Amino acid sequence: MTLLFESYKSSRFLSGLTGDDRKLLESVARTTAYPKGHLIMEAGDTVKGLWVVVEGRVRAVRSYMGSQITVATLGEGSVFGEMGFIEDLPASASVYGDAVDNQVAFLSAADLNSLLVSVPGLAVRFYRALAAVISQKLRETTARIPELMVEEVAQVVQNANTHTGRADLRSLPPSFVEGIDAFKGALAQAERMLNKERKTAEEVQPLVSAACTALRESLQEHVKRNEKLSDAIGAYAFRETFPFFMASQFIDIVYTKPRGYAGDFETINMIYENRPTGDGRIGPLVDRWILEEPHCNATRQRRGTISAHIARLLAARPPEANLLVTSLAVGPGREFFDALELDRRGQVHITGVDIDPDSLNFVAERASAAGVLPRIRLVQGNIIRMATGKAPIELPRQHLVYSIGLMDYLQESLVVRCLDWMFDMLEPGGEAIIGNFDSRNPTKAFMDYIGEWVLIHRTPEDLRRIFAQSKFGERPVEVTADTTDIQLFARCVK
After folding, report:
1. CATH architecture classification, 5-142
2. What is the pTM of this model?
3. pLDDT at 140 over 90
4. 97: which of 196, 421, 443, 469 lies 20 to 30 Å off by Cα?
5. What are the beta bridge partners of residue 49?
6. In the prediction, which pLDDT does 2 show?
7. Which residues contact residue 193 at a Cβ distance below 8 angstroms, ignoring those fewer than 6 apart?
């Protein structure tokens, strides 16, 4: 008889055991067939033992506000339940069958312990193999931490740039230095107007906004005009304006990157909410200015662009046909709820993938409150690992796969890999949409040097070229811009 475990010697766990070891484990294993979606192990279970996926695939999920968030997908030869076996603690996640047909072998702790104490050398080999499994899972968990996500995030190290020693003040353009002095003078005047002259915030806002805009425009102009001095110009602007801009809550969060990168779900949600705040009297005024700047307006508009496109796709479908949509790098997922609110028949079903569990929890909480949880599937996953085949997820073919806040962070080769993955996930006639900031963005220098929110800006021609390098090949790519002419959307049909 062919041994079940003998077929999976490539498994990190089983490969650490001898052939005789695998025969012994098989002799005490109880193998059960599970259909797709069947619960194998429930979070909180105290059943002691190990499971080995013999055939098919399983999905580990954690529940939040009634929503199941997929945290791992395990294929043949994979082990789960090892932490409960070692620590004698309840399971931290539920596990479901994920393929059409699944077979999972269960090794009870009692049977395992009997073997480990009676067979010389087995315990050493067994625990060494189990340690390799735990080490691998720890590495994969570490890869999900945003600060370490070199592949997915441009800003890996918080406040990584130095701001001294760039250039002597005398080498900087005099007009730029004068502009910085004028900015500081205007904000000092605004402070006096608020404190001594008892002016209202509404009366002082135009002065603050005009000064901030003038500085942003001066920085953009001088960086573009003096490429060799761009870093020196940016560093000087940062040092001289830091106390003023960091009084804005939004700019402070963008700069300090508490989640490891500037455009996290909380930052994007602050843009959507558009509720200025900050320290002192000046902080809220600077905050109001930045939240109305072109790049923030563009970010707000992309939410409506996507939800409106989903509505158009829905209108073209028969009333009984579902519309399957996947979002990569979910963020706050506000466009989800806009689209679902317009869908009166319940046809739209959305899968959201993000590396940040708090982003998924945020979406799950809102979905629960809105009563649309059954129509949203949330998956915690490293999108780059998915795109490179290192962390596959099982999805039915989709009608729309989009990403509006990720590609600006990725080098061209990784964007191509993501597009290849999107292509494979689409049914014929399905659409891929990616968003990217246009290279004409007038706030680029401010984002780069004041907020250290560094994105890869691209042109429409860049996006068409990238699509052509992917599996989409020579299919026509429609590139449009929003009303700010900053946010580009590239759309291609499979």
Report:
1. Sandwich (2.60)
2. 0.73
3. no
4. 421
5. 108
6. 40
7. 199, 203, 204, 207
Which CATH superfamily is 300-493 part of?
Vaccinia Virus protein VP39 (3.40.50.150)
Residue of 77 and 325 predicted with greater confidence: 325
For residue 49, name the pLDDT band (cuts at 50, 70, 90).
Answer: confident
CA distance readout (Å), 395 to 56, 73, 80, 89 = 15, 12, 22, 32
- Cβ pair 431, 475 in contact under 8 A: no
Q: Please give the C-alpha separations between residue 309 and each of 303, 312, 335, in angstroms, as whole numbers.
A: 10, 5, 10
Question: Measuring CA to CA, how many Å separate 225 from each of 228, 281, 337?
Answer: 9, 35, 43
Q: Whole-angstrom Cα distance, residue 181 to residue 380? A: 47
Average pLDDT over residues 87-101: 85
Q: How far apart are the first and last CA of the chain?
A: 46
Q: What are phi and psi of 110, to 5 degrees?
A: -65, -45
Q: State the amino acid at position 424 in one-letter form.
A: D
CA 179-184-188 angle, to 5 degrees, is: 145
- Which pLDDT does position 161 carry in this prediction? 58
For the record, the structure tokens of 404 come out as: 């509006």
Domain boundaries, the chain: 5-142, 169-295, 300-493
CA 436: distance to chain centroid? 15
The answer to whether 133 and 72 are in contact (CB under 8 A) is no
CB within 8 Å of 404: residues ≥ 6 apart: 302, 305, 306, 335, 433, 434, 435, 489
User: How much is the average pLDDT of 100-106?
Assistant: 90
Question: Mean pLDDT over residues 212-216, rounded?
Answer: 98
How many Cβ atoms sit within 10 Å of the Cβ of residue 86? 14
Residue 468, phi then psi, degrees to nearest 5: -65, -25
Distance of alpha carbon 466 from alpha carbon 449, whole angstroms: 27
CA–CA gap between residue 269 and residue 280 (Å, rounded): 23
Q: Is the pLDDT of residue 122 over 80?
A: yes
**HEC profile of 123-142:** HHHHHHHHHHHHHHHHHHHH
